[in-house]
Design brief:
Blueprint lengths: L1 H32 L14 H32 L5 H38 L4
Pfam family, one: T4SS_pilin
InterPro entries: T4SS_pilin
Keywords: Membrane, Transmembrane, Transmembrane helix
Length: 126
């Protein structure tokens, strides 16, 4: 009985290590398939800045499409006004607001890019 207990207590860490390795391998596989492969130095192959740029570019595409739709809708309101000054004013205002919104989004993008470039140069990643 004591021998069985001793053998099981020695085998338990081996089983735990095998389970940990299986879990770690599954995490590595998931990360690799998601584009975050780990290099031999232990660093991810895709850095935070490049991953952030992918998401930011996608967001800007969606925002650009939204503003384009608003400008087209404002133009439609303006062209279909048929002399109604209220609708002409509404169409012009919508176009102006969409252009201002797009300028704000582009300005924010420039500020974020400058911040990332500046912080990326000053912060040591080790």
């Amino acid at each position: 009985m004591l021998t069985l207990l001793l053998v099981e207590s020695l085998a338990a860490p081996i089983g735990a290590a095998a389970a940990f390795d299986a879990l770690r391998n599954s995490f590595e596989k998931t990360g690799t398939e998601a584009g975050y492969a780990v290099t031999s130095e232990g660093k991810p192959a895709r850095e935070f800045v490049s991953a952030w740029a992918v998401y930011l570019n996608g967001f800007l595409v969606v925002m650009g499409l939204l503003f384009m739709v608003l400008v087209i809708y404002g133009g439609y309101l303006w062209m279909s006004a048929q002399g109604k000054e209220e609708q002409v004013t509404r169409g012009k205002d919508l176009i102006i607001q969409a252009v201002i919104g797009l300028a704000i989004v582009i300005g924010a993008r420039i500020i974020v890019e400058l911040a990332i470039l500046t912080l990326g140069d000053t912060v040591q990643t080790s």
